[in-house]
Amino acid sequence: MHISQMFYENEFLASLEIFPPKNDLDITASIPILDELSTLKPDFISVTCGAGGTIHSDNTIDLCSYLKSKYDIEPVVHMTCLTLTKEQVKQRLELFKTRNISNVLALRGDRPLESQPLNDYTYAKELISEVYSEGFCVSGACYPETHIDCNDIDKEVEYCKQKIDAGAFFLISQLSFESGIFLNYLEKLRAAGINAPVCAGVMPILSKEQVERMIYMCGVSLPGKIIRILTKYQDDKESLQKAGIEYACKQIEELKSAGVNGVHLYTMNKPHIAKELFKAVKS
Asked: Beta strand pairing status for 74-80 and 44-47?
């Protein structure tokens, strides 16, 4: 089923993100995780490409295919384009079709190492257009605090419009640690005439190191409430995780109350965390 159909049928969707096993390990290692996550009955699960957002592991496709055949959960396969040729994209899309994968999150991807040449793509909208033309339901990424390579929210909104015009049916947002940041951004999208569904990305705080990594990689900001949590529990890992999950649950409740189209939960492949967050989803 196309995710677009789910949005037509439901006012609110709750989805998860997982990543494939590292170092090309067999997906067998991920099956216990999928067994637990499947009990939550998410509307869909997206599967990342791999480390750094540029590795196109066959494990990504294998996990997507397994989600569909074993649990009847609709997968969304991540696909980046910055280091791919048009021929490689065509081959990959044909492979998706043979594995019964019909939903694609089309991304530019992280800039590669100097040793990796750029190929036929510069922007995500170029990939979105090609994926859409092949009959897939396409989603794009959006960035409430702008992409790390962009420092202009008006340009970010314009880039989102270009993605929708290229064929993206819905958007999945980068995480933000404050509901107001996402909701203000959503207002800007709507004011610009972008009426596509937008899922708010939510990630619970589990450690100081994780937060520092997100700041560095994604350019997200830290509200005072988060700083106070990190300071209060910096020497108590268990209490920090509990407080971080409670904070994320409150975010979900605030977003639902505001009438967002959905939430996309970054699970970090930890089912027990996803289960706690889904309590807020179901409340």
From this structure: parallel
Cα–Cα–Cα angle for 35, 79, 215, rounded to 5 degrees: 85
Q: Which residues contact 18 (CB under 8 A, 6 or more apart)?
A: 30, 33, 34, 37, 45, 46, 47, 48, 63, 267, 269
234-282 per-position pLDDT tens digit: 889 999 999 999 999 999 999 999 999 999 999 999 999 999 999 999 8
Query: Is the Cβ–Cβ distance between 280 and 249 less than 8 Å?
Result: yes
Identify whether the C-beta of residue 106 lies closer than 8 Å to the C-beta of residue 140.
yes
pLDDT tens string 211-238:
888 888 888 999 999 999 999 998 899 9
Q: Is residue 41 within a helix (H) or strand (E), and if so which, with residue range?
A: none
**Structural contact between residues 244 and 277, judged by C-beta atoms closer than 8 angstroms:** no
Q: Which tokens go with 237? A: 């890992």
Question: Tokens representing 189?
Answer: 């999208």
Nearest to 58 by CA among 107, 105, 91, 87: 91
Give the whole-angstrom CA distance, residue 218 versus residue 216: 6
